[in-house]
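Predict structure. Chain length: 399.
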Amino acid sequence: MTIKTFTRPFTQQEPINQEAIEAAIEVLKSGRLHRYNTIENELSEVSLLEEEYAAYQGSKYCLACASGGYAMSIALKAAGLKPGEGVLTNTFTLAPVPGSISNAGGVPIFVEITKDLVLDLDDLSKKASASDARFLLISHMRGHLVNMDKLMQIVNEFNLILIEDCAHTMGAQWKKQKSGNFGLAGCFSTQTYKHLNSGEGGLLTSNDEEFMARAIIYSGSYMLYERHSAAPSSEVFSDIRLQTPNYSGRMDNLRASILRPQLKNLENSINRWNERYQTVESMLIKIRGIEVPQRLSEERYVGSSIQFRIPGITKSEADLFINKNKKLGVELKWFGNDDPNGFTSNHKSWKYVSQQQLNKSDDILSSLFDLRLPLTFSIDDCIHLSKIIIECSNDFIKK
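Prediction complete.
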């Protein structure tokens, strides 16, 4: 039986809801888009977003930034990263992660991954010991949480400063603890393809008052830090305000105004993403020769994308597999290509970083495929695209 072509776009997000549109219109009518353009004791849209996200996250402090990458960069700076210092991080991640390390003056030290697309904790221990690195910027890439109990044992053993990249795990949990609350700071993205959509944007959370005071000054608060409500008291800034440069990476009121209503619906969106993820997962795991990452029972994930492997597939076969799917309307990304394509790249194309031997990860990435599951897809859409992937995989599964 011939499978019909899938016709839904993989980059189409849900429309911004009416409440958010109306809030944005009010900001536009006011003309006061800058976060510090307030009247008397008025809280700006950005300050209100910071309050609300801190409450959602369960953290003391929150800072809204221009992007998730910027949040990671100033997190490293505010945590005391020195020029030329090594920062442990995932091999499997997206370019903004090593980019933020480089931007902060650090040097990425890549840690191997497992077939379940999380940090290889044995390799982390080995490299933490060998490198004497003080920092671990863990990327919960594509929403996969490593065993956080075991990770924290290593963090404590080597006295690592842990910063979490939660661009794909906003709302995710390990047991009852939210992603982003395990280390010094959590970094989140509100770029269009993330769990809240403002086009670009980021959020930085922490319970450490001196760290957050530095981050706020770095973000470009000038001496207006008292206009932040999810922030340390003004006394904490007394010396920090004169010792910390302004790197201007603020969020504006327009973006904050459209994020606040979305945050109210985030839990509902998470449930809907997971329904779609579980639909595709349930079909792919039945196919011998396709491997879907296993998730630990303690993890509450957000399935806004799904990954799978076809072990043993060659580069030329991977190209054919991608093209077969594309002809039938399914857009797959492949992380085994050393030549970057759109948002997708791997460590071999990041030439500003010295090349590192990562044979285990390279073998995993060579057979790894990825696709978005936007909320504009119905459950029937997810069944349809799964059938196409399965049909196209028949020629490439090693018997």
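Summary: The first strand starts at residue 61 and ends at 65.
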